[in-house]
Each structure stands twice: as structure tokens, then as C-alpha cells.
Amino acid sequence: MKKVTALLLALVMCLSLASCGGSKSADAQEAPASAATDLQNVQSKGTLVVGITDFEPMDYKDENGNWIGFDADLATAFAESLGVSVEFAEINWDNKILELDGGSIDCIWNGMTLTDEVTSAASCSNPYMRNAQVVVLPADKAEEYADIESMADLTFAVESGSAGEEAVSELGYATTPVTAQADALMEVAAGTSDAAVIDLLMAYAMVGEGTSYDNLTYTITLNEEQYGVAFRKDSDLTAALNDFFAAQYADGSLDALAETYGLAGSVIPQ
Amino acid sequence: MELFQQQLPIVIHSLNIGFLQTLKLFFVTLIGAIPLGLVIAFGSMSRFKPLSALSRTFVWIIRGTPLMIQLLIIYYFPGLVLNNNIWGSGETGRFLASAISFIINYACYFSEIYRGGIQGVPNGQNEAGLVLGMTRRQIFFKVTLLQMIKRIVPPMSNEIITLVKDTSLARIIALQEIIWAGQAFMKGSQGISGAIWPLFFTAIYYLICNGVLTVLLGRLERRLDYFR
User: Fold this and answer.
1) What is the residue range of A123's domain?
2) How far out from the chain centre does Cα A196 lie?
3) N or C: which end of chain A has fewer CB within 10 A?
């Protein structure tokens, strides 16, 4: 028994030593990494890897399997302006900051709401588009719950970590966090939650006729919010993108692109 | 109904691509974990105490933590903590990381099944072999191995069928297997949005796949019957 204990202790010591060693070597590696800026790194590898999810009309695939959409087209143009090619990587939205810090993507560019969580964990661009959070209800209950005060007793399905969750929590109403906005809708359709809070853009695409949710409807707007792009902390790509946005807005191409994807009027002046 | 008929080919195509990824992960895991499990089993049974303690601790850690956490650690740890993202940025890196996590995880479960199978062969046979002047190696390959295989087929079948379904965990690091493909239509993909049925439809793929596996493994079990 003593031997086993001794072995276990030795193992724990080895592990803790190894972890110390690990962090030390990490520190040592940081010095050369910060010597080359993010922009230089992207240019030397020749690709800008953009973390996205399938999210019409921001990032989605056309019939040939190519990524298009307001954000996808804009990201392609931005990469071109840096002189690199663009690569889209579908990520699990819950892990977006992990993906960014781990280096498997260079930016998160997917109709991302600028919440405190994101702005504190990453370097974010200027907001470029407006969006809102809306409440989704079964159509036959929409009249009964006409304003936000009447909804105090409802349980809201929200995407975990989303701006919608933040908005409902601020009101002090009960929430059921789920992994995706689509799951939040399924909760309402199945009756396991009374209502859901999702992006207006998403509600456009997913609720109403021609979808599996034709008996749902979206009603009141909870709060206005803004979309931005996230880069690694202290990245110089953020400034480069802000300049790019300003130029694109000045020559009208940002508005033209918004027109193409049915988002006219949502662009924020740069 | 008309809408469904329009959507069906698009969804099937997408699910097929996803299921191919699922199958790829399944077979790669089996090919890697079946031999690795044997190595770990020998480690756990070794008479050299530090080695057996080491492999038993390893098995304890891997079996004692969720596969989902192992996937996250293997994929994100190198880039986050060591500042060296060894997986690159493409789909290949995600698949490799998933495959390695699954191989390690399943090898540990297999190793315990092997250990049970080997230790279940009566020790008298081992002693008889030694009396006849056989080496330990000869005893294992000529006496123990086939009996062990016969004994481990039912528990292995169980794990193999579980593996088919466990592959869906890889979506945590955005490996686009069949559940991912089905869920994409809930949110909106290829012009179909807000469709719930593709997600539930994926169950049919798993059912058919596991049906085939059950028949094959059942046949294998019958062929090994004469060892009784």
C-alpha cells in the first residue's frame, strides 16, 4: 500500500513538474511570437483563416459549395487587400475564443454580436452592422404576451453565451441555455420552453412559412446590438480592418453589398 | 409534402457526406485502438511494477474523464498552452485530433476487455504449457490468444456499437460528422432553414450501420463457437 502511495505521489510530482516546464517553454516562445505581428504572420503563411458557422445571410454555401454571404464576401475582399487568400473554417460557436487563441483561426467573422464577453477576450473591430434580439413565441400566444412585462412568468430558451441570454438575464427572467439558436427554436416548437430569444436576422430566415416553424412568430425587440469582427488580443489586424471598413464605406461598396444580401439600412456608418 | 420532396435529395447528399466522415472516424479508431489496446493490456499485466502502475494510472485517467474533455484538450491544448498549434487550420487537423483522441480513449477500454479475456483463460493451461517446455510467447500465441478472442467478442461488440454513436462527440471540435450535417439544416444551410427532420433522420443511418455490425459480429461469434 505504501509503495502504491509513493508511486502516486511520484506521478503527481512528475505531472506538476511537467506542467511547470510547459508554462516556462510557453513563456519563452512568446518573445519571438510577439516580434512578428499578427499581420506579418498572416502574410507570411499567405492565408487569412476566418472562423464561421453556417449562418445565412452572413456566411453560407452556394450551390457549388463556395462560401458566400455578406460577411464571407467582405472577408474575401479584406484578405485580398492584405494580399493573402481567404480560408473559411467552420467552428463550434461555443469554442470561438479557444479557436482564436489556439491559432486554428485568425478571426471570428460571422455576424458576431459585440458583447462584453467577446470584447474582453479578444480585440474587436469597429461595429459594422446593426442587429436586434427578438422574442419568438407560438403564433397563437403572441397576442396574449404583447409586451415584455407580460412575459415575466415565461421560460426563455436562449443560446448559451449569446446576446439574447444576456438580455433575458438582465430582465431577471428564467432562461434555459441551449447550445445553438436553432435548438432554442426547437424548444419552443416542442413546448419545452415558452419562448426563445434569437437574432432578428436569424428569425427572418427560420421562423414563419416554408420552415418547420410555421406556427411560431417573432414579436417584440429586446435590445439593439451591433456586429463586429474579433481578432486575437493586441492584433494589428484590427486596425487594418477598421481602415478597410472606412474605405469600403466611403466608396459605397459596403452599402451595395448589404443591398445584395437584403440587409440594406443595417450598415453602420464608418 | 412537395417541399419535403425538394429538400430530401439535398439533405440526403449532405448527410451522406457527414456519414462518410463518421465512418472514416469509426474505422480509423478501430484500426488504431485494437492493437494499441493490446499493448496497454500487456502493460497493465506486466510483472514489472512501475510499468503496470503507469499503464493502470493511464487507463484510470482516460476512463475517468469524459471523451468530450479529451477531445477539447487534444485539439486546443497545443495552441493555447504551448503556443504551437500543431493541427493547422483545415478539416484534416480536426479529423486527426479526433482520431487520436478516440484511439487513445477506446484503446483503454479495449485493454481492460483484453485483460479480462486473457486472465479468464484458466491458469492451469499456462502451467501445462510451462511443463511442456513452451516459452511464454508460445503459450500466448498458441494457447491463450484464440481462447481470449472467443471470450472478448461479446464485450467488444458492445464497445464497437457504442463507438459508432460516440463519433458524434467529435462535433465539439467542429468535425463535420453526420449529426453536424443534420443540425446545419435547423439553422439554415443550402437554402433549407428551420428544418428539424434531418437531425432525427440521422438516427436511421446509425440504425442501419449498427444493424450491419450486429449481424457481422454475431456471425463472428458463431464461427468461434467450436472453441467451447
Assistant:
1) 40-130+227-260
2) 18
3) N
**Contact yes or no for A206 and B82 at CB 8 A:** no
> Are the Cβ atoms of B83 and A30 closer than 8 angstroms?
yes
C-alpha cell of residue B149? 478472442
The DSSP bridge pattern shows strands A67-68 and A174-178 to be: unpaired
Residue A218 resides in a domain: yes
Residue A112: strand, helix, or coil: strand
Q: Are B17 and B184 in contact (CB under 8 A)?
A: no
pLDDT tens digits in sequence order for chain B, 228 residues long: 777 888 899 999 999 999 999 999 999 999 999 999 999 999 999 999 999 999 999 999 999 999 999 999 999 998 888 888 888 878 889 999 999 999 999 999 999 999 999 999 998 998 999 999 999 889 988 889 888 998 999 999 999 999 999 999 999 998 999 999 998 888 777 777 778 899 999 999 999 999 999 999 999 999 887 765
Angstrom distance (rounded) from CA A106 to CA A118: 15
The letter for the amino acid at A42 is V
Together in a domain, A123 and A232: yes
Across the interface, which of B89, B188, B197 has its CB nearest the CB of A89? B89
Domains and CATH numbers, chain B: 2-227 (1.10.3720.10)
**Sign of the dihedral defined by the CA atoms of residues B133, B137, B140, B146, in that order:** negative
Chain A residues with CB under 8 Å of B197 CB are 212
> Which CA distances in Å does A64 have to A67, A75, A176, A260, B190?
9, 19, 37, 19, 10
Give the domain CATH number at A112.
3.40.190.10
Map grid coordinates 516580434 to a residue.
A35
* B12 contact partners, CB below 8 Å, separation of at least 6: none
Task: Report the C-alpha gap between B126 and A227 in whole angstroms.
Answer: 70
**What is the value of pTM for the model shown?**
0.79
**β-pairing verdict for A107-113 and A174-178:** unpaired
The verdict on a CB contact (< 8 Å) between A212 and B76 is no
* B50 and A CB contact within 8 Å: yes
